[in-house]
Amino acid sequence: MNINLNTATAAEIMLIPGAGKRMAHEFEEYRPWKSYAQFEKEIGKYVEATEVARLAQYTFIPVNLNTATEADFMTIPGAGKRMAHEFQEYRPWKSQAQFEKEIGKYVDAKEVKRFWRYMVIQ
Predict the structure, then answer these.
(1) Cβ–Cβ contacts within 10 Å for residue 114, how many?
(2) pLDDT for the residue numbered 93
(3) Across the strands, what pairs with 120?
């Protein structure tokens, strides 16, 4: 289970093992999440670093297709360096349809849809 830190409901957050109501509140309070450095800082106020890392493994922060670095793209499960390169190559991104067309040249429709889940265009 990977939940979007910026859009998950309290109920979805509470599906994370051991998260509870307090963490659901904290996850929502610090929105919008921009980076895991921010997550580590803010959630680290309440729990130890090992617990922050454990909670983070159940989450993701959407990556901005137009500004993300290769390192940002590498946080997407299964992306790899080749896809990070392709994500950067087609900038500027203007729409989901453009993403589906261009990335669909490299992976099947199911994988395009999975990648899109981790993206935003801003």
Answers:
(1) 14
(2) 98
(3) 64
Give dist(CA 36, CA 75) in Å, integer.
10
pLDDT above 80 for 20:
yes
pLDDT at position 6: 95
Cα–Cα distance for residue pair 111/81, rounded to 1 Å: 16
DSSP 21-42: HHHHHHHHHTPSP--HHHHHHH
Q: Length of the chain in residues, anyone? A: 122
**CA terminus-to-terminus distance, the chain:** 25
Among 69, 55, 66, 61, smallest CA distance to 34 is for 61
How far apart CA 105 and CA 102 sit, in angstroms, is 6
